[in-house]
Specification:
Length: about 525
């Protein structure tokens, strides 16, 4: 029998209350790391053991949350033998398993679907959508009662009674016009290939019926429905759309988190009673294809038990073969550990990175959550979105574009217009984006700004301006006798070109500039080096 430590309360919690998701017998670490310790097992360990041995298929879900596994003693040789025999009986024969350390976790290849997808939609929605005020409105509770920022304090004094609490906003989070099928149609029309929906932000409100967030979830209060589950179902009806979720590891004002932080993160009550049970529940219930972790930065990954969770996710979870994660799993992990790299919000490298990365960018430049006081000038226009996306993809990244629904479940027509416009551009030019690879050179600026992508032997030159003299000079491609050039919006008409010395070419552009919703045009170059 495995025991976490000598705290009986925690022991009882894990052994009795979390048998469905938090088994403590590890398949993620080699047995050589297991040690013995004189720890009193819980009174019900016999019942626990009986459940384990009578339901061997559930061993596939066993995992451990601690750096050191401790056998509870005294324990009979027979019981130990039975446990080890059960492990052997269900262990995979040949497949390699990931161990709970970063060397092993980082060695896992990123599933191909993610690199091919290129474009995703980020959705920030929660109780913070009700006040919908201020810069980075999703942080409203913290600005108001944590940092006590003047704008938010004055906003509350002006519009709400003195005894109003942040939790009171949940009663107004009705989502009465929320239609997940309508959302999914907009996302499909945007040309995006994956969705990242906020399951829980730092305020702690859960957009699904979490058993570990009593009366602070979308089923118990506010909408009284499973917002996350309904969207997952709607998205998966759309061909080619992958469903992922964002999840904040921490919560600003949760008592257990504040207690752990006060201990210098020497205790982990919040992690084991809140964060990990909820993550496991989300994975088992909704089977997300992507987990976008956040809210990790105050504590090291050892506090969050990140490597143990990821080892379970990659080895034994129902999404083990296709799930993708980011790099926000504790202090020091950004741009270093995990799956693909976010590095920072709106991260934009200056050169081609040597690791898969993603830029998250919000249509509203001043917030991820909905703001009632946003102004048109503060929103990205469509050409800015397309140019940003092209730059990211040319440098090997994915582009995750954020929109923020209103508290009633409606997506602002301004956001919808941007998404449909992006989809219109991708409908014509997506060949240069989806499943593309960076070319040997990422861009040039001889005549107008040009970014390159490639597929096999085909090169795509994406112009961010139309050449004023109808002559496009490309200095980097090397032509051959087989070189042909067309525009993706009119592929049946080859363009005339002449080679330049020692390399490059000049393309004669059409006299009439083709209409482009994103003010970007794509040349398809075949037979070039």
């Amino acid at each position: 029998v495995i025991q976490s430590d000598d705290q009986q309360r925690r022991s009882e919690y894990f052994w009795l209350n979390r048998l469905d998701s938090c088994f403590l017998l590890s398949l993620s670490l080699p047995l050589s790391l297991h040690t013995l310790s004189q720890v009193t097992p819980p009174l019900y360990y016999k019942q626990f053991l009986g459940k384990c041995l009578s339901d061997l298929p559930q061993f596939a879900d066993f995992w451990f949350f601690y750096k050191e596994l401790k056998m509870a003693t005294p324990i009979s040789l027979l019981i130990r033998t039975l446990l080890l025999s059960a492990l052997v009986a269900i262990a995979p024969g040949n497949g390699a398993r990931y161990i709970a350390n970063w060397t092993s976790i980082d060695s896992r290849p990123i599933p191909q679907w993610y690199d091919d997808a290129k474009i995703g939609i980020f959705i920030h929605w929660g109780v913070f959508s009700v006040p919908g005020f201020g810069q980075f409105s999703e942080w409203f509770w913290w600005w108001w009662q944590g940092q006590k920022r003047e704008d938010e304090v004055e906003f509350m004094k002006k519009h709400y009674p003195p005894n109003f609490q942040y939790t009171d906003f949940a009663h107004s989070f009705k989502a009465q016009f929320y239609n997940p099928d309508d959302w999914a149609e907009i996302f499909e029309a945007s040309g995006a290939k994956y969705i990242v929906f906020v399951s829980k932000h730092h305020e702690g409100f859960c957009n699904w019926p979490s058993a570990d967030s009593w009366n602070w979830n979308a089923m118990d209060t506010g909408p009284h429905r499973d917002l996350l589950g309904d969207l997952a179902t709607a998205v998966r009806k759309r061909k080619g759309l992958h469903f992922g979720l964002y999840h904040s590891l921490y919560e600003w004002f949760h008592p257990l988190y504040l207690k752990d932080r006060a201990s210098g993160f020497k205790t982990q009550d919040f992690v084991f009673q809140k964060t990990l049970p909820e993550l496991v529940n989300l994975v088992k219930t909704y089977k997300p294809e992507l987990i976008w972790s956040d809210g990790d930065w105050e504590a090291p990954d050892t506090y969050w038990n990140s490597t143990e969770f990821l080892a379970w996710l990659y080895n034994d979870s129902p999404v083990k073969d296709y799930v993708v994660v980011n790099d926000r799993w504790g202090q020091g992990c950004y741009c270093k550990h995990g799956g693909y790299y976010n590095c920072a919000d709106r991260f934009t490298p200056g050169t081609l990175p040597d690791h898969k990365w993603e830029k998250c960018q919000s249509v509203d430049n001043r917030s991820w959550g909905y703001r009632r006081n946003m102004k048109l000038i503060e929103l990205m226009d469509l050409p800015s979105i397309i140019q940003d996306m092209v730059y990211v993809v040319a440098l090997g990244g994915n582009y995750l574009l954020n929109i923020s629904p209103m508290e009633d479940g409606m997506i602002s027509p301004l956001f919808e217009e941007r998404l449909r416009g992006m989809g219109g551009w991708l409908a014509v030019n997506g060949e240069a984006i989806y499943a593309s690879k960076p070319w040997r050179v990422q861009g040039e600026n001889a005549t107008v700004p040009v970014w390159y992508t490639s597929k096999s032997k085909t090169v795509y030159a994406i112009m961010l301006e139309w050449p004023s003299k109808l002559m496009l000079n490309l200095e980097l491609p090397k032509t051959s006798k087989d070189t042909t050039i067309t525009m993706l919006d009119n592929p049946s008409v080859p363009l005339k070109w002449v080679p330049t010395d020692p390399a490059g070419l000049v393309v004669l552009m059409p006299e009439n500039m083709p209409a482009s919703p994103g003010q970007a045009w794509v040349l398809k170059l075949e037979g070039v080096l």
